[in-house]
Specification:
- 81% of the residues lie in helices and 0% in strands.
- By secondary structure, it is mainly α.
- Helix 1 crosses helix 2 and helix 2 runs antiparallel to helix 3.
- The protein starts with 5 loop residues before the first helix and ends with a helix.
- 9% of the residues are buried.
- Pfam families: DUF465.
- This is DUF465 domain-containing protein.
- InterPro entries: DUF465 (IPR007420), DUF465_sf (IPR038444).
Length: 74
């Protein structure tokens, strides 16, 4: 996730509480989705799709914050 922006992501994790909260939530959801896909987490398809959509929504929010950072700091 955001491999080309690792320095920005790390800076935002360190300095922006909202971004840090979103990043941590995204990591939790990513882990749950992975566990469900591997069969380690018992979840129905409907709930799995909800998790995936929430994860993508959070990723979109983080992308907006990264883009704003890029415009104001670079």
């Amino acid at each position: 996730m955001f491999e080309q922006d690792q320095e920005i992501v790390q800076s935002l994790i360190d300095k922006n509480k909202n971004f840090r909260r979103l990043y941590n939530k995204h990591c939790q959801l990513k882990s749950k989705v992975k566990e469900a896909n591997q069969g380690y987490l018992s979840i129905d398809d409907f709930d799995l799709e909800i998790l995936k959509k929430e994860k993508l929504l959070i990723k979109d929010r983080m992308a907006i914050i990264i883009e704003d950072y890029r415009h104001t700091h670079i």
